Amino acid sequence: MQVQTKRMRQLVDWSAAVWGGIIGGTVFAILNWFVSPLVLGGNVWVFVRLFASPLLGEGVLAPPATFDLTAVVAALIVHYALSIAFSLIIAYVIHRGGLIGGILGGGLLGLAFYAINFYTLTLIFPWFFPMRSWLMVATHIMFGAVAGGIYEAMEVEEFVPVVE
């Protein structure tokens, strides 16, 4: 007689992943829109227009860098869509890692997203290439760590039997 054991698999909590993206994305936006101009120069509108440029095109970057409602809306759409998408990936990868694993794994994935954004997507959006800096590396790592940590903190653990 063979003893059957039930194996269980933990499910990803997609709602917690979305919240991780929203909160991590907000931290990322604050750092990039308000701290980066202080460190790298420019003003908040330069960074807002930069975030809007994948949707509105390179023309949105033309001076003067002043308030433009269309650019603000486009920047928010692009930014939060990417933040949530990246957070869903983070959650899928780290969802069994616990809080420390979520923060550390999220930070590593944030670094990977930096590499993807600034070393491959610059082939499509070359105006992002000059933005490569230690500050952008740090804010991407911070985004991933916050998104991963928030995910793990909010995750409602649910398990389902594995069908063999």
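^ that was protein a. below is b, sequence first then the tokens
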Amino acid sequence: MKRKIVSFEQDEEGHWVTNLECGHRQHVRHDPPFRIRPWVPTEAGRQSRIGALLNCKLCDEAIIK
């Protein structure tokens, strides 16, 4: 289910995590060639994604149950 990104924070290992409008959190990584997200490493890039939609896997799982 698509949810809006409301903010970002780093986890205890320094990886970036989104806070989604549904209250769930999700890691986002720029890890070529597997994940291409060049906006993750920079503050400007992350800020440009506030309000963007991201698929929330936890919301998807809740629908399936």
